[in-house]
Amino acid sequence: MHQHALFKDPDAGDTLTYNANIPQGWLTLAGNGRLTVSGTVPGTDTQVNFDLTATDHQGLSTTVPVSLHAIALAEPKVMALNVKDQSGDLGVGNSSQTLTLNVLLNTADLRVTGSPTATVQIGDTTYTASYVGVNTDAVSNQGVLIFSMPVPTAVDTSGVTLKSINNISGSAITWGLSGVALDTNRVYDLSAPYVVDNTAPARPVVQLASGLTGPGGLAASTLAGNASGALEIITEPGATVSVLLSNTNNANQNVSKSVETALLGLNAIALSQEEANNLGTGNINVQVIATDPAGNRSDPAWFSFTVI
């Protein structure tokens, strides 16, 4: 705390004594007139108003009002946790992937030195996640500490729990404005859902959409204009379906589609007139692969039809 002289006695060698009616217990006045901060300082900004009196040895005194504004030091705090797989899917993955833990803090003004670690608990087992980096968002004034670790082969249904963030070998996480460090002695017990799914979806079922029939094949206009789409695909709900339609007579005539299936697992694949024209005429092979949210891929399903 910077302090400046408020009193000056014109009598050379005169000694002044000081007293003040300070209401806060964490601010005290020393005999030489210096203010000292001690005890527990408020955690929020605080205005302190009091009168400071200087008295010389003859009993003459002068009083001045003093107003101090105590600004609370900014402290980085952990606010939330989310867990993703390496594909960015939230809350689900398989054991061949890397687990990414995003720890949300209350400030974007973060300074990270060294390589801190995170201790996480999955089921009854404790793991150490390695530091990857930090992302900041100046608009929301939030920062995200990113840690990673291999996905265990089995994860309890309670998900992943952040137990602590650890400064090791001189590493530190501080709020840039104040220099105050993240409290690494705190146990957070912040949990995020995460499920390991190592089972691939069953091979999808592929068929022409309802209303698409015709002796000897289908016209391109019929294929594109059908109200129910061109194909119907049944697969695991929530899976992403990759569809490749290719003309067996010309490898350059093909159309790729990627669609996330509906909750019931039934998905209609529509073709625009341009896509139907690109396929041309002849035998059309259809390959369909379903990928679930954990990243598991099904065996390919095959189907064919003729465009005339």
Q: What is the succession of H and E elements?
A: EEEEEEEEEEEEEEEEEHEEEEHEE
Please report which band the strand proportion falls in: under 5%, 5-15%, 15-25%, 25-35%, 35-45% or over 45%. Answer: over 45%
Oligomer class: single chain
The CATH topology of the largest domain is: Immunoglobulin-like
Distance between the termini: 87 Å
The total count of helices amounts to 2
Structural class by helix and strand composition? mainly beta
Regions with pLDDT < 50 over 5+ consecutive residues? Answer: none
| Number of separate structural domains | 3
Question: Key features?
Answer:
308 residues, mainly beta, Immunoglobulin-like, 3 domains, 7-stranded antiparallel β-sheet, 4-stranded antiparallel β-sheet, 2 helices
Describe it for me?
- By secondary structure, the chain is mainly beta.
- 4% of the residues lie in helices and 46% in strands.
- It folds into three domains: 17-70, no CATH class; 78-196, Immunoglobulin-like (Sandwich); 205-307, Immunoglobulin-like.
- The chain is built from two helices and 23 strands.
- A seven-stranded antiparallel sheet has the order 6-8-12-11-10-13-15, with no helix packed on it. A four-stranded antiparallel sheet has the order 20-19-22-23, covered by helices on one side.
- A hairpin with a 5-residue loop joins strand 4 and strand 5 (61-70).
- The longest helix has 7 residues, at 273-279.
- 21% of the residues are buried.
